[in-house]
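Supplementary Methods, section 5.1.

A reviewer requested that the exact input to the structure prediction be made available. We therefore reproduce it here, unchanged from the version used in the analyses.
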Amino acid sequence: MRPTTLDALRDAVATAASERAPLRVRGGGSKDFYGGMLAGQVLDTGGYCGVVAYEPTELYVTARCGTRLAEVESVLAERGQMLAFEPPAQFGCGLPENPGESVATVGGAVAAGLAGPRRQQVGGVRDFILGVKLVDGSGRVLEFGGQVMKNVAGYDVSRLMAGSMGTLGLIAEVTLKVLPRPQRELSLAFEMGEAAALGALGRWAGQPLPISASFWHEGRLVLRLSGAEPAVLAARARLGGEALADGGFWPSVREQRHPAYAGEILWRLALPKTTPPLGLAKSGPFEWGGGQRWLSGEIDPGAVRAAAAEAGGHAVLFRAPESLRCRVGAFAVPAPAVLELHRRVKRVFDPSGIFNPGRLYAEL
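The structure derived from this sequence is encoded token-by-token as follows.
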């Protein structure tokens, strides 16, 4: 199914609800590898696309779910603005295991809740959601939030959609806050080990430095400085390092084309930035000042999740063969009380349980 109007989307959902037939909501397919197992009839949202509203002076853009991120970013670039959380638009394209082209959509970006390198400075996806238009599991069209921050009041249901993996409803439209592009950007490279890099990032975090991104891998730390030109140049003089001329470096991190992300099995760990190296395997890359770390290869899933929990964080099986994802789950199942809250929210938005069953947790 590839509906092209809101009414057609609503009718497709209402029919599925009446028949209790599971739906697999899908945009561009760039996140098919992410999350739990794929199930249900495909409801292709790519036909419902287009930028609905854009107000550069009010710093917001509204787009339909099937709109390609590249289209939104092109519109914003004409006015010197951007989606500051840098959602990946062509995940992993160019790596040997993913040689083709998969294109991300606005709805999928919000549902997956994945942000790029600039999250370190500006925040994640949910921090930029101002409002959503949602088709719930009964086929009703619901609207939450607004178009500017002063209109967003009460229970912030719109931000609940970020990272929901499409399990609560079909995100038909979304309004996102946009920001001006930095006046100047500069990347610096440093040769240092993992522990030294974590220590340096911890020290720099307490200083007024315009660091908008960081990435460490195999003894090399790269920083991106963003902001007004005087601030960027002053930070460069203060930090030292080698200026990086490769303009494709940060896109390769954002889209996971960098060789550090290669491999059949990839774990993503969200940890306190001060956490020392875990020592579970060969040190993988880390980002966001040490807050996001990656491990690859054959590692005991229980050991990974236990180590992350002990450090005060959590681990996600980001990419893996179907057999492993089925056995251990992409996301660790939360505590019983928290899982029950998930179930209650799911029942409110999707009483028939038709949206993306098992994509977030097997229990949902």
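The chain has a mean pLDDT of 93. These observations are discussed further in the main text.
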